[in-house]
Amino acid sequence: MWIRTVWTTAVLGFSLAVGTPQVLADTSLNQIQLVVNGGEFELPAQVLSEEIAKRSGVTWPIGAATQPKETITFRAATSTEAVADEGFSITTEPGSPVRITIAAQRRRGAMFAVGYLLRQLECSKGQVSLREPIKTTQAPDYAIRGHQLGYRAQANSYDAWDAKTYDQHIRELTFFGTNSVENIPFQDDRTTPIMPLSRAEMNRVMSSICDKYDVDYWAWTPADFELTDLAKRAEALKFHEAFYKDCPRLDAVFFPGGDPGDNHPREVMPFLEDLSKILPKYHPKAKIWMSLQGFEGEKTDYVFQWLKEHQPEWLGGLVAGPGSIPLDELRAKLDKKYMLRDYPDITHVVRCQHPELNLDPVFAMTAGRESINPRPVFYADIFAKTAPHTNGFISYSDGCQDDVNKALWSGLAWNQKQKPETILAEYGRCFFSSPDALLIARGILGLEQNWQGSLRNNQGVLVNLQLWQSLEKAHPELSTDWRWQMLLVRAYYDAYQRARLVNETQLEEEANRALEPKEGRHPSDAIQEALQILAKVDTQPVQPAWRKRIGELFDALYTSIKFQSSVEKYHAINPQRGCMLDFVDLPLNNRLWLEDELYKVQTLGTLEEREARLEVLRTWETPGPGSFYDDIGHVGRSPHAVRKSREDGGGISYWWFDNGMSRLRRSWLVTGVPASLEYSGLDPAGSYQLRFSGFRELKPRGDGEPLKATVYNTGMNTMKEFPVSSEMVKDGKLSVTFDDVHQEGVNWRLQPRLAEAWLIKLPTQAATEKSN
């Protein structure tokens, strides 16, 4: 009766073979009749019928059961079945015809049961089957499982969605256990030409959709003005009341303490009390939540003292967001009567709450901050460390590019024991292809691995593209599916960037060799030769077919889901918001900086000055025998750097200058402060000098001893030099550490940074002069 897939060893090993699996039987569920016992379950049955038709073309009608007939019956759980409020049970009765029963206490639980079924069923054209009988009773591990879908200009796709798109997306979020959606109803009053509805209209639509699927509707409502301004405060209260009144459903109002906003809690708490008098008039069960974002020290103490004194019943709990005190501290300080919700950023890769520590700078520059970013293993680790302190989460998201991450977080909050691979396989089965679900899961994991470490050395990028190309060929029916398009374009994008990086790195090396001094050759001739070599990137482009496919897929993504990969072409609100297409051909070597520097060389007054500067430029990263160079922010080009862990404040800063089109040296755009620089194999009798490029203060130590600077510039991308005593290198080793120079209260963009480090072995003559 039951179809069971037999996977070949090659497929289990994730070979490039794709296609229909072998099966042990020829039984299907094509003749299912959906039976609904209770009006609460009519919508879940309708959703199941519609989704099966989309995936297979098979019709599962809804109606009364006729004998003998294969059925899936929706009914209310009995008191003896121990089905939780949000849970469900699914039971396959033995024998023939097939009879499956779904029991739930409410529509929400039945929707989660539908999602579970869709993640287990084998669907293909004209065929629906089940791998094995189901007997399960499930309930979520965490009470709050949601995502922010703010309809505002800032988003890279949400602002262009119509009611139908929001309806389908919220429906599909429930398939992985999502029970909450957070909108941004009136903050950010910018409009865009691609908004299909006004903000007020869409606020109402989203509330209605959430009510339709029995999903909690939250509102994110910051005060980005001074609450001491009584006129603006009164106006804000009116806005809130009008919004509350207009919402068919509203379960929670979330007020972030900061980001945006800079109000003291002595102003925030009375404002929330005023809101608490308005909210129950329209939504009696709704609660108000707040975060401590931007609150430190005295401000945090004020909030907890206020809560202790007032014990407000209107408060649902606190929200932990970027800039709040750590989750474990929040939970320890917060009265147990209140819940704690996390607000994880799952939408950004750099300059964010959870940056990618091992990202090659190429991706930080081209894919950018808000790129298509499946990070299942990374976020499973973050979830495991943060979720136990909370009652759940509603993620920060500004677009559809993090869709895999949404499924991952929702799936883990439903069942925290799941492995990322399991969720990904169910993601592939639910949305793409049952036979190739494991391969698709492998491909998604491969996309995450593409971004681990040095891109130039990552041979897996090409292998993963080959996997996705084989899947693309095997599944032409998925060509218009936006989730499929996103994963495909990432595979092409990553491989294209690697091909460009290899080529452009070689061109820069050739250009530097062209600058080598040659007897009888004028510096201007060397400069022209170097410029011509660097220009080959334009005249001899690499992988034009991949570049063409990337453009086609981004075109398709705008058509299918309104993903805005370009400011000019697709109305993105600014270059940091998902604009992967705008940066796809950004130079990956130092071509732009070198062109500018070579032009400056030609303006120098004497031949000696020009030759000396060319020597500095060509040996910038190759300082000579016995010397060492580290590009501190580059995971593949800083061999002497010992990096700090995430818990110890480790990380790399990817800077954003000139809207991402900076002509600076690439090493100056990516900085970090390592735990140490470790050198070995030094000449015990040699003389050395440390040189650093960066910004603001730096306090290095050599083998624990403070180093005294002979050159100390603190401007942007300027140099500092520190002689190293002979005593420090007499054992052939040197350990360089750094005192903390973080400046309290100073914006992170203005904090000290370290870009490059050199350990220069001085020539014998220079060493003699130094000792004298």
Description:
The chain has 772 residues and is of the alpha/beta class. It has an 8-stranded parallel beta sheet. Helix 14 (437-450) runs antiparallel to helix 15 (460-474). The protein starts with a strand and ends with a helix.
Highlighted features:
37% helix; Chitobiase, domain 2; 24 helices; Jelly Rolls; alpha/beta; globular; 3 domains; 8-stranded parallel beta sheet; TIM Barrel; single chain; disordered N terminus; 772 residues; 5-stranded mixed beta sheet
How many β-strand stretches? 29
Major sheet summary line: 8 strands, parallel
Helix coverage percent of residues? 25-40%
CATH architecture call of the largest domain: Alpha-Beta Barrel
Head-to-tail CA distance between termini: 93 Å
**Count of helical segments?**
24
What number of structural domains do the residues give?
3
What characteristic shape results from the CA principal axes? globular
Mean pLDDT, to the nearest integer, reads 93
- Uncertain segments: 1-17, 19-26
Beta strand %:
15-25%
Radius of gyration: 30 Å
Q: CATH class of the largest domain, anyone?
A: Alpha Beta
Major sheet strand order: 16-15-14-13-12-11-10-17
- Output the CATH homologous superfamily of the largest domain: Glycosidases
Assembly status? single chain
Which structural category fits the helices and strands? alpha/beta
CATH fold group of the largest domain: TIM Barrel
